[in-house]
Amino acid sequence: MDNAIYTLCHVKRPVIYTRRDRGEPQMEKLTKRIDGLERTTRLLQQDVAVLTAQAEHIATKADIADLRTEQGLLHLELIGEIGQLERRVDNKFVQMERKFEARFENIDRKFDNIDRKFDNIDMRFDRLNDRLTWSIMVPAILAVLAWFVKVAVLKI
Predict the structure, then answer these.
(1) Max Cα distance, the chain (Å)
(2) What does pTM read for this prediction?
(3) What is the helix (H) or strand (E) element at residue 91, kind and residue range?
(4) Residue 5 pLDDT more than 90?
């Protein structure tokens, strides 16, 4: 036996030996693949640089937690300010109500004074009416009755 490996009929030769003669040389293929990898690496470096630049502006969980805490504090502060504003507005309305009440009390007093004056005038008219009734009307009616009795009844 010459060589046991070559005597076997179904053993194939390695792939490297069969392809060596076909197509481009292996070194050119490897150079092209390396060039493609270098281009891809450059693109990846550019993408990484862009992402790194953008990463400075991206919020982290800690940043968001800080903002939520700040938002909560601002919310509480705003609620406090609104409460103070409501109290101030309520105080202003109370002051305005007191001023209006004081003015209306003054107006009520003036109307009371006017009512008293009208009552005094009404009393004077009542007294005048009484005087007129007793001093002029009663004697006039008595005079008319006396004349009627004299003319109609006694026929004098």
Answers:
(1) 201
(2) 0.39
(3) helix 61-132
(4) no
